[in-house]
Write a structure and sequence with these properties.
It comes from Streptomyces mirabilis. The chain is built from six helices and ten strands, in the order ααββββαββαααββββ. By secondary structure, it is α+β, with helices and mostly antiparallel strands. The mean pLDDT is about 95. Bound molecules: flavin mononucleotide (FMN).
Length: about 220
């Protein structure tokens, strides 16, 4: 007997847990401190994998694409993530260096989305970031070939075994295509879900596009 997808869907709920309240009037002037506060609260609330996020890019034709990546950091320079420059997303970012990020933390009914230009960090910085991570992260980066057609599962097994051996022997092994990217947001939206569907949406928009920073304008949005 097959699963009744629609019945299952109807049985599921969102915003069915006790949700925190969010007073946008008390929000800071810039988005980074609020992101950091919400991130820490997500960790404290036991949200699983709060450091994973959707990364949306567009290809040369402007067609959208999305996948999950890990957040490597966030500071005045932007939100950092890493991948292979030769991967599908790497090629898309080379063609259109602009992306969106999305976080969803259901433990608290919170969503954060960001949009902005993406820059490639200097290669040494990308490699240092990789070498400060786990052996598994280095092994994964050393395997390479990301987004290319794989001939067989055995082929991946052999490449992965070799990559793990090398990562253990040579913790500073270079992974030449592995690249650190930074998204410098022009817009950051904080969404606090509410059981009565009076969700709070607070958006920060950068008022000046200069690389020196500049201020932020805050606005509420209808949910
Ligand atoms: C939880 C999770 C974390 C991931 N983190 C990364 C990451 O940090 N970098 C990365 O390149 N791929 C990561 N991936 C794999 C990507 O989702 C994706 O499959 C891969 O990067 C290829 O994407 P592309 O073909 O669009 O380039 C992660 C996947 C999951 C499910």
């Amino acid at each position: 007997m097959g699963t009744d997808l629609h019945e299952l869907l109807r049985s599921l709920r969102v915003w069915d847990v006790e949700l925190p309240s969010f007073d946008p009037a008390s929000a800071p002037a810039e988005p980074l401190p609020l992101f950091t506060e919400w991130f820490a609260e997500a960790v404290a609330a036991g949200q699983s994998e709060p450091h994973t996020m959707s990364l949306a890019t567009a290809d040369e034709d402007g067609l959208p694409d999305v996948r999950i990546v890990m957040l490597h950091g966030a500071d005045a320079d932007g939100w950092a993530f890493a991948s292979h420059v030769t991967s599908r997303k790497g090629r898309q970012l080379a063609a259109r260096p602009y992306a969106a990020l999305g976080f969803y933390w259901p433990a608290q009914g919170r969503q954060i989305r960001l949009r902005g230009p993406v820059e490639v960090a200097p290669a040494e910085e990308g490699q240092a970031d990789l070498h400060a991570r786990s052996t598994g992260a280095l092994a994964a980066a050393l395997v390479g070939g990301q987004s290319e057609v794989l001939g067989s599962v055995e082929e991946l097994g052999r490449a992965s075994d070799e990559a793990w051996d090398r990562a253990r022997r040579e913790p500073d092994a270079p992974a030449p295509t592995w690249t650190l990217y930074r998204l410098r947001p022009e817009e950051v939206e904080f969404f606090q879900g509410d059981a009565r569907r009076r969700h709070v949406r607070l958006v920060y928009r950068r008022t000046e596009p200069s690389p020196e920073g500049g201020g932020w304008r805050k606005e509420l949005l209808w949910p």
